[in-house]
């Protein structure tokens, strides 16, 4: 389960675009699997960038 202590105001496009880029990179590298899907990874990246 992914949780974040504060709400992040994001549009669908803002979350989908980085998720698509992450997914494309996984395909390019022939990565087998990840614990989190690319959309959740994008959310973590955007939350981290917002805090820093």
Radius of gyration: 12 Å
Terminal residue distance? 23 Å
Shape: globular
Q: What fraction, in percent, of the residue positions are helical?
A: 55-70%
| Mean residue pLDDT | 84
Number of strands: 0
Could you name the ranges where pLDDT drops below 50 across 5 or more consecutive residues?
A: none
Helix/strand class: mainly alpha
Strand content: under 5%
Please, how many helices?
2
Q: Can you summarize the main beta sheet?
A: none
Describe the protein:
- There is one protein chain.
- The chain has 52 residues and is an all-alpha fold.
- Helices cover 62% and strands 0% of the residues.
- It has helices at 12-29, 38-51.
- The relative contact order is 0.22.
- The mean pLDDT is 84.
Please summarize what this structure is.
With 52 residues, the chain is an all-alpha fold.
Defining traits:
single chain, 52 residues, mainly alpha, 2 helices
Write the layout of secondary structure elements.
Layout: H1 12-29, H2 38-51
Helix pairs in contact: 1-2
């Amino acid at each position: 389960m992914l949780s974040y202590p504060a709400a992040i105001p994001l549009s669908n496009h803002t979350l989908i675009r980085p998720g698509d880029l992450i997914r494309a990179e996984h395909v390019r590298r022939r990565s087998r699997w990840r614990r989190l899907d690319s959309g959740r990874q994008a959310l973590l990246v955007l939350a981290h960038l917002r805090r820093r």
